[in-house]
Specification:
alpha/beta; four-stranded mixed β-sheet; 22% strand; globular
Length: 499
């Protein structure tokens, strides 16, 4: 056992005990963070405008801090971009994480000196909790790869601007730098296909033990590795590969394909990082859900998802959440984000400690007829069918067909299989039955002859990869929307339908 490996276990045990201790009093931590955030920001332009001086309780907080999407905070962020200080948080941010918004164009999410530890320490803690739970430290001796965006940055009035994964690259702890791949030069390549090939060339002869990234792009990396090497499985190339770290999407739709490529099952850690903050991470090998980051500079609020579009929705703190109920997530943080509605929906699967699953995106749903089908439901429907029929799904998305040329309206599923099912009709029926079990409104519409059962449209091999490339969103933190309430993506996918 190496020195690094032998030191990892006691350090992991120490950090795990601190994390577990924090989660014995989560409500106290959240109240403390709320008051600390208010106290630190009371003299900012935003704090003065919203009377932070008077905030003493959560009720006061809700009166003072309005719920805001990016458009609502944008005027404040524009002031920061123009060089003004003490706007949303004391001083000015270290960085702007640049993200592509669906409604606001490019978004500039502030990251401050106070908020950066949330991103770095949470990623570290996820690994340490895994070590503490599993006892596996072998991966710390090998090479690690993080498939991510370019670490190159621009600068505006002393604030560096780049993609979150690229910004975090500059804060990797020193003890990991020698183990980290790919090289800086390779990470800076913008063309994703060129970048993946170069990463393969750099890693193919290395002792890779940990691989991290969004599953569809890791699959692309694995497929290219096998193509270059002539091997049949990734385990033949990297026999010591023992840990996969992922986030951004549900792993289950990709699990079967990943395990085929790897050559068997492998330990994995799920994380929930976002430009706005590192929200949660997997802390257990046996319990479902991700541990909410209750003591990391973020004060969380929750809105029942059915009230999201109301003018004055119910806002609750962690103290009042319930199990198995969908909430829109709202954060207030030491990055200077206030009442910020990040667009994700979450569901608590445990209240002791507080663990969540990401159930979807507020804007990613289908409710053309009032059915309000969400991401969690479509993933369940297709994955259960795929498991039963031993079918591998590569990628899929769903959209309503409100005005068909004939017959009743329906939900159209665009599905790319590893190998098309021998009986697509039987598979389609199974998916539809599963969705009806999950969503009673959808079932009522089918039984009431308002909708007909769903239709699956088969896609060409690599259809979604080529589609994302055509949109300039191949790789990095980009992902395919699981479902939408219009036909925009559906119409754009016409070119990649199977003949």
């Amino acid at each position: 056992m190496s020195i690094k490996s032998s030191l990892a276990r006691p350090f992991a045990s120490y950090v795990a005990s601190k994390i577990k201790s924090a989660h014995t009093k989560p409500i106290e931590h959240q109240k403390k963070i709320m008051l600390q955030l208010i106290a630190q920001a009371k003299d900012t332009a935003f704090g003065n405008a919203n009377n932070f001086e008077s905030v003493k309780t959560y009720s006061d907080f809700k009166q003072a801090v309005p719920i805001a999407d990016y458009e609502a905070l944008k005027p404040w962020i524009e002031k920061i971009k123009q060089g003004e200080q003490n706007i949303l948080w004391p001083g000015k941010p270290l960085y702007f994480a640049k993200t592509s918004g669906t409604t606001s164009g490019v978004k500039y999410i502030p990251i401050t000196k106070a908020s950066m530890p949330n991103h770095i320490n949470s990623a570290r803690n996820a690994l340490l909790m895994y070590i503490n739970n599993s006892g596996n430290t072998d991966f710390v001796n090998g090479k690690m790869i993080f498939l991510q965006g370019s670490p190159e940055v621009e600068e505006l009035h002393g604030i560096k601007i780049g993609r979150l994964s690229g910004l975090v690259y500059h804060h990797v702890p020193g003890y990991l730098l020698k183990n980290r791949l790919p090289s800086y030069q390779t990470n800076c390549i913008e063309d994703w296909e060129e970048k993946v090939e170069k990463i393969c060339r750099e890693t193919i002869k290395e002792n890779m033990t940990l691989i991290s990234g969004i599953p569809p792009w890791v699959i692309m990396y694995f497929e290219k590795l096998l193509e270059i090497s002539g091997k049949k499985t990734v385990k033949e190339i990297f026999p010591n590969f023992s840990l996969f770290v992922y986030g951004g999407v549900n792993y289950e739709p990709y699990r079967m394909r990943m395990e085929e490529l790897i050559g068997g099952k492998i330990d994995s850690i799920e994380t929930y990082p976002a430009s706005e903050g590192f929200i949660a991470y997997q802390d257990s090998l046996t319990e479902p859900g991700l541990l909410l980051n209750v003591d990391s500079g973020i004060f969380f609020e929750f809105i029942p998802v059915e009230e999201v579009h109301l003018e004055n929705p119910t806002r609750i703190s962690l103290e009042s959440v319930e199990l198995d109920k969908n909430y829109a997530l709202v954060i207030n943080s030491n990055a200077g984000l206030w009442g910020y509605f990040i667009g994700d929906t979450v569901k608590f699967v445990s209240l002791n400690p507080h663990r969540i699953i990401v159930s979807g995106r507020v804007k990613h749903f289908i409710s053309a007829f009032g059915e309000h089908v969400i991401g969690e439901e479509v993933e369940f429907a297709i994955l259960e069918a795929a498991k039963k029929m031993q079918i591998t799904i590569r990628e899929f998305t769903v959209a309503p067909q409100v005005n068909p040329t004939e017959g009743l309206p329906y939900h159209e599923w665009f599905v790319e299989f590893e190998k098309n099912p021998e009986d697509i009709d039987a598979f389609t029926v199974l998916v539809d039955e599963n969705l009806q079990k999950k969503n009673i409104y959808y079932r009522d519409l089918i039984e009431g002859k308002i909708l007909r059962p769903l239709i699956i449209t088969l896609m060409q091999p690599n259809a979604f990869r080529d589609f994302m490339k055509s949109k300039g969103k191949l790789g990095g933190q980009n992902k395919v929307a699981r479902l939408s309430n219009d036909r925009i993506i559906a119409n754009e996918l016409d070119s990649w339908k199977a003949c």
